[in-house]
Amino acid sequence: MDEQNLESIMGLIMNSGNAKSDAMEAIQAAKEGNFELADEKIKASEESLTLAHRSQTGLLTKEAQGDNMTVTLLTVHSQDHLMTAIAFKDLAVEIIELHRRIVK
Questions:
Q1: How many Å apart are CA 15 and CA 11, to the nearest integer?
Q2: Alpha carbon of 10 to those of 40, 52, 90: distances in Å?
Q3: Is 77 marked active-site?
Q4: Above pLDDT 70, what percent of the chain?
Q5: What is the extent of the structural domain holding 39?
Q6: Per-residue pLDDT tens for 50-95?
Q7: pTM value?
Q8: Helix-helix angle 3-31:73-103, to 10 degrees
Q9: Does residue 2 sit in helix, strand or coil?
């Protein structure tokens, strides 16, 4: 695996992990009634997901141009992190909305 692909894969893992952590912190803030912080954490989660998507897009673009890479366990792991973070952020938004309704 070349250095550029490794950097993209590690970017996927790191940014996806950050996105999931921020989403979890957003839920915790909502549980405590701090919806301003919850919203900030969701925004941070979305920003990390954007960075992760950029890493993924770089890999997909290279593949579309015929520069195929060997799929390794690390590659699969990075994609798993991204998909889990996306799902987690989406669920966090719904959970936060439920907490808002309960408080009202």
A1: 6
A2: 25, 9, 23
A3: yes
A4: 100
A5: 3-102
A6: 999 999 998 999 989 998 888 899 999 999 999 999 999 999 999 9
A7: 0.91
A8: 20
A9: coil
Q: What is the CATH number of the domain that holds 19?
A: 1.20.58.80
* Of 26, 45, 27, 58, nearest in space to 85 by CA: 45
Stretch (H or E) spanning 62: helix 35-64
Is 22 annotated as contributing to ligand binding? no
DSSP 1: -
- Residues found in the chain: 104
Per DSSP, the three-state class of 47 is helix
Q: How far apart are CA 13 and CA 19, in angstroms?
A: 10
The total domain count for the chain is 1
pLDDT in tens, 8-34: 999 999 999 999 999 999 999 999 999
pLDDT of residue 1 exceeding 80? no
- C-alpha separations of 48 from 21, 70, 71, 73, 98 in Å: 10, 26, 24, 22, 24
Angstrom distance (rounded) from CA 104 to CA 67 = 54
